[in-house]
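Hey, can you fold this one?
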Amino acid sequence: MSAGTRPRTPGTAAQTRLPWWALVLPAVAFVVLFVLLASPASADTGSTSFGEGTVSRAVEFVRHALQS
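Sure. Predicted structure:
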């Protein structure tokens, strides 16, 4: 055995703690991309501008998707 290492005892697992943003940011990115791709409102408008009510429509879409 080399200096500074301890033998691993059977039955113990390595524990790793992730920062909060390591879980939240991928989840937020997934929801945003899902809303952008699956939103039926963006399919029939044909505009690329960020108009009024877009955020409220996105929130309602996510709420409806989570309920079903």
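The chain is about 55% helix and 0% strand. Let me know if you want another pass with a different chain boundary.
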